[in-house]
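User: Hi! I have a protein structure encoded as tokens and I'd like to know what sequence might fold into it. I'm fairly new to this, so please keep things simple.
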């Protein structure tokens, strides 16, 4: 894996597009895309969905995802392969520079990383306009054990800020996602020991040219994030990544998004296989019985009759069990998002029999494995427009998913080894020692929330990938914070991956303050003061033109 990873990054370096040189190193190149995103517009769209039950399909173009799509599609596609690092970006390579409209935030890396994570949240958010819908979701870094997750009150808080939504139980399945691109897989309803439980699949319904373009753009964002060495909280099933890298799929991959259907297929397939073997055994015994020499030589007539009777009983038992399972089964399949498909013409009126069971299982598995293939293929084409195809074939699906999403186990010792301290702070200071002990005690969800708070990304770089910048622990800012540290919260600078840590009087207080900061302080402070014209819209009400025009679908 080390050799493959090294070769992969060498290939990306060789195929990267370079921004034009500037006379002053501190000027941004003219050919670097400058992107504007109105996060307020996206927030108003979610508010409209919740208050007035406007479906996400009608608000698609107000989303940050579609805003970014419309902005980047104005630039030549080759610019999506740009990897540029500004001297002020502290090592963060980028493909575009972003500006949040109406927010006084400078993009020196933090906002750039933040937009990728916010788009992941947006795509995987439940649709609040649907009765019974939920807006939050378990973090991809949460354990699959629902009981353990719900036992941690801080995990619930992290889920809230990850999605910006109301509290809901982790066993609750969203009816659908807010944006009509992803859909909760059937595994949300599986047992807690399901290895791929909280996954999102592409929609299997008719994939219009517009939807295909959006799926392709999502793939391009994956490629941009990989080139920028930004990991994503995008919880797609392993089958998706296998299709992306060209890895062979099997019937067991059905379990990556529908474990109940997979178990059903495996169980029926096993019964059919056993039945087939017993039938072959019976034929073999009958053939041997007719051969008197063989029959008398191997067993007596009485033993042969007993053996045949045992085989007949096994065949009868297997046939009865199979019949009881398939008695109402027809040649149809239903996808995760409820699309009904006939596997053969008129399949809804044709019953599955024991004789046709093997053929039915093959048709069913193929239908389910490829139910959202048009969307996956568009997604794959988007990735390949930014990353060379030969680089992906180095990996299995799971290995490439680790490159994109990072490890779901956040190694605090690795973070500690990549941390620097200001001159007035030491790793041997008591409050710094307490800080690392507290981080070690955090759940994986809390560790991920901490990284988002301090670095605007959900996890560490994958193994084999160097940190583009070191974390910096600095003292609290201001004389009062130095004199009365217990009255202050930690402060993060996401652009520079730095943390101002007050010297708290106890480890318990440090844990409390840090938990509050990572769950409640999730928005970026302004870097500069806006003019009055820049802040127009922040006082918008549901009756304002901004709010009422959200469902316009201009492209």
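Assistant: Happy to help. Inverse folding works backwards from shape to sequence: for each of the 555 positions I chose a residue that suits the local structure. Here it is:
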């Amino acid at each position: 894996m080390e050799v493959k990873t090294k070769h992969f990054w060498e290939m990306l370096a060789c195929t990267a597009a370079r921004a034009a040189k500037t006379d002053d190193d501190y000027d941004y190149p003219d050919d670097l895309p400058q992107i504007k995103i109105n996060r307020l517009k996206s927030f108003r769209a979610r508010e409209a969905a919740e208050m007035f039950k406007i479906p996400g399909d009608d608000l698609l173009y107000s989303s940050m995802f579609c805003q970014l799509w419309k902005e980047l599609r104005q630039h030549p596609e080759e610019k999506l392969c740009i990897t540029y690092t500004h001297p002020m970006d502290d090592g963060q390579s980028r493909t575009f520079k972003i500006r949040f409209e109406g927010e006084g935030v400078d993009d020196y890396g933090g906002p750039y990383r933040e937009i990728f994570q916010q788009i992941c949240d947006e795509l995987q958010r439940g649709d609040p306009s649907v009765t019974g819908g939920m807006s939050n979701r378990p973090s991809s870094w949460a354990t699959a054990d629902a009981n353990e997750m719900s036992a941690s009150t801080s995990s619930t808080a992290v889920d809230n800020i990850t999605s910006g939504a109301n509290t809901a139980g982790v066993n609750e399945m969203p009816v659908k996602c807010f944006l009509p691109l992803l859909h909760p897989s059937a595994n949300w309803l599986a047992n807690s020991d399901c290895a791929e439980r909280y996954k999102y699949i592409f929609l299997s319904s008719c994939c219009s040219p517009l939807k295909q373009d959006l799926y392709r753009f999502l793939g391009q964002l994956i490629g941009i994030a990989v080139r920028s060495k930004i990991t994503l909280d995008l919880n797609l099933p392993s089958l998706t990544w296998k299709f992306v890298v060209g890895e062979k799929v099997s019937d067991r991959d059905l379990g990556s998004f529908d474990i109940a259907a997979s178990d059903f297929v495996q169980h029926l397939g096993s019964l059919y296989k056993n039945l087939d073997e017993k039938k072959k055994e019976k034929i073999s015994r009958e053939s041997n019985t007719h051969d008197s020499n063989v029959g008398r030589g191997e067993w007596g007539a009485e033993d042969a009759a007993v053996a045949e009777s045992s085989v007949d009983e096994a065949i009868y038992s297997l046939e009865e069990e199979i019949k009881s399972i398939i008695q109402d089964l027809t040649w149809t399949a239903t996808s995760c998002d409820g699309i009904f498909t006939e596997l053969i013409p008129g399949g809804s009126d044709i019953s599955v029999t024991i004789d046709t069971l093997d053929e039915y299982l093959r048709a069913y598995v193929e239908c389910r494995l490829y139910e959202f293939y048009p969307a996956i293929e568009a997604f794959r084409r988007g990735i390949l427009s930014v990353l060379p195809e030969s680089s992906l074939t180095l990996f299995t699906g799971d290995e490439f998913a680790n490159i994109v999403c990072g490890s779901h186990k956040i190694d605090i010792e690795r973070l500690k080894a990549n941390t620097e301290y200001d001159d007035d702070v030491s790793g041997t200071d008591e409050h710094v020692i307490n800080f690392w002990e507290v981080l070690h005690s955090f759940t994986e969800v809390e560790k991920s929330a901490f990284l988002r708070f301090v670095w605007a990304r959900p996890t560490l770089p994958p193994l084999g990938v160097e940190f583009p910048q070191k974390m910096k622990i600095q003292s609290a800012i201001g004389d009062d914070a130095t004199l009365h540290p217990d009255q202050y919260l930690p402060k993060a600078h996401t652009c520079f991956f730095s943390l101002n840590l007050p010297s708290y009087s106890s480890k318990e207080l440090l844990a409390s303050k840090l938990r509050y900061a990572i769950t409640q302080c999730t928005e970026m402070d302004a870097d500069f003061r806006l003019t009055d014209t820049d802040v127009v819209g922040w006082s918008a009400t549901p009756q304002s033109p901004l709010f009422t025009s959200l469902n316009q679908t201009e492209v």
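A useful reference point when you look it over: The first strand starts at residue 34 and ends at 37. Feel free to ask if any position seems puzzling.
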